[in-house]
Amino acid sequence: MNAIDVKIKCSIRGRVAFVLAIAEKCLGLLQYSEKVYNIAAKALEDAWKWEEGRKVHGDQLDYYLENPEEESLAVYGCDPPKPSWAAIMAITSALAFVTWHAYKKDGIKRMSSTIHEVSESVVDDVVGYATQSAGCDPAFLECISKYIVEKCGSSDVSELGKPMKREAVLGACTNSMKS
After folding, report:
1. In the prediction, which pLDDT does 178 show?
2. How high is the mean pLDDT of the chain?
3. Domain parsing of the chain, residue ranges
């Protein structure tokens, strides 16, 4: 199992849970800055709330990526320390993917230019960035893709699918985690 299997065999919520699990693996690499870490952690927390079916809208998630106060992952992602670059890109890409799906679920067609450019190929971007970081090992990617395909497999990849609980997804591959 791999990202391709997740993309072609899973519901939207399955793909979202997949990228969020990967982003969680990269989060620890943002501890170089308390501010960046806290923004990313809060963003992932709210993205998981959306995944779990709670009331979180695209605008709320998009705010973590870009906002007028310039207290966003887009701003801080411009110049992180070299070891953290791939991790912040994986997290930012995962958040953009969730935001895009949140807007689509709510039927909103007007979104920031960054989110408007998102497509299903962002799943590959998240995996690519994560594998370049020290936060995500191949055993975890294999395990989480297998778990997601088993739990969220669908003959219709355009269906929203059932919500996935953060704890269940993150706990599914604890033996292969290197945090």
Report:
1. 41
2. 93
3. 3-176
Tens digits of residue pLDDT in 72-91: 998 888 889 988 999 999 99
Write down the pTM of the prediction. Answer: 0.94
CA 94, 97, 103, 108 dihedral sign is positive
Rounded distance between C-alpha atoms, residue 105 and residue 161, angstroms: 11
- Neighbour-count burial of 96, counting CB atoms closer than 10 A to its CB (0-12 exposed, 13-18 middle, 19+ buried): buried
**Cα gap 67→80, rounded to integer Å:** 19
* Res 103: pLDDT: 97
Other Cβ atoms closer than 10 A to 72: 18
Burial category of 105 from C-beta neighbours within 10 Å (exposed 0-12, middle 13-18, buried 19 and up): middle
